[in-house]
Amino acid sequence: MSKPLIAVIGLGYVGLPLAVEFGKTRKVIGFDTNNTRIAELKDSHDATLEVDSDELAGAKYLRFSSDADDLKDATVFIVTVPTPIDAHKRPNLTPLHKASETVGRALKKGDIVIYESTVFPGATEEECVPVLEAVSGLRFNQDFFCGYSPERINPGDKAHRLPTIRKVTAGSTPQVAAEVTALYDEIITAGTYQAQSIRVAEAAKVIENTQRDLNIALVNELALIFNKMELDTEAVLEAAGTKWNFLPFRPGLVGGHCIGVDPYYLTHKAQAIGYHPEVILAGRRINDGMGAHVAEQLIKAMLKRRMPVNGARVLVLGLTFKENCPDLRNTRVVDVVQELWKYGVDVDVHDPWADPKEAKTEYDIDLVEAPNAGTYDAIVLAVAHDEFRDRGIEGIRALGAVDHMVYDIKYLFDADDTDLRL
To answer: How far is CA 125 from CA 78, 115, 221, 266, in A?
Structure first.
C-alpha cells in the first residue's frame, strides 16, 4: 500500500462510488461535512442506495471522516460536491468554494486536486484555483496542480456503474493529465479519454446533459402540439421510430441535479462572455413548463367528463426525479402537485422510494404510505418505479373511485388501458 493517499471530498451519488472503487486497492479517506452521513456509512448503510453493504465492506482500505484534519496526509484530492442552481437559475458555486477552502487548508507542495463536479468551462481555473492559492499560500502549476474528470453517474442505474462508464480526464499540465488518466485507469474498466485541457473536459461534460435536455424539449414541444391536434404522441413517435436514425426520446418531466440544472451553467457562462443563448434556454423553458401542462391537461379532461375539480381527490404516484431512485433533488413532479393545488384539488402523493422527512422539508409534501383503494377521482403516474409497473393497470385502477381517470405520464401501460398520456 505505497500508493499516494486519496481523499474524496463529498460522499453523495458521485463521491461514494468513487471512494469505494479506489478503496478496494489503495488507502482512501471519504470526507463529508454531514456527520449523519458519515455515521451511516460507518454503519455500512448508504441512504442513496447506490452502494450496498457488501460493496462498502469490500472497500477495505476506505475510511470515513468529517474531520478536516484527517485530510492532511492525502496527496490527491478529488472533489465531488454538488453544483446546484439558485432560485433565479444561476449557478450556486458555494459548495465548490467551500470544498476548495477545505482542500486548500490541507494542500502541500506536489499535491493534485481533481474536480468531478459539473461546472461551466473555465470554472476550475477561474473559480477553484484562486481559492486553493489563497488558502494554501501555494502557487498553481508550480507548487500544486489540478485535474478535471467529469462525473457520469446515473443514479439508480444498476447496469451502468462507475467502472463500466468511460471516463474523460484532463490535467493542468501534460504530465499531470497523464497522472490523472493513469489514476482513473486503475478503476475504470471501460477506459478513459484524455481531453486536450481542463476547459475542454468541463465543456464536454456540460454539453452532454444540455444535448439530452434539448432532445427531450423537442419531443415535449411535439407532445404539446399533438395534444392540441388530439393525436397520441406515443403512436406518432413509434411510427417515426421505424426510421433507423430516429432518436428514441420521449416526453416527460425533466428534473434532477443534472439534465435540469447543467444547461444553466453553460448559459450563465455564455451570457458572461456576451452571447445570449437562444436554443438552450428555449428548451429549458419548455421543459420547466411541463408540470403545469400536465396539471392543466388533467383538469381539462376532468371538466370534459363533468367531474368536479375543486375538492377532487387526485393521487400522484411518484415524487423522485426518476425511477427506482430515492433522489428528490430538483424533482419536477412537485410542479404538477403545486399546480393542482391552485385548482383546489386535494392531492395525495405516494412514493415508496422517497424519504418522507425530506419530502416534507423540501416541498412541504406529506407522503401517503398506503393509498386507500376506491378513493381517487384521478391517478397520475408520474414516476416509473418498478413497484407501480408491477402493480399492473388493474391494481392502479383499483385505487380510483367508481368514476376516475388515469393519466400515464411515463407510458407504463398501453394507451387503451389509460385515459390520458403526455
So the answer is: 15, 11, 38, 16
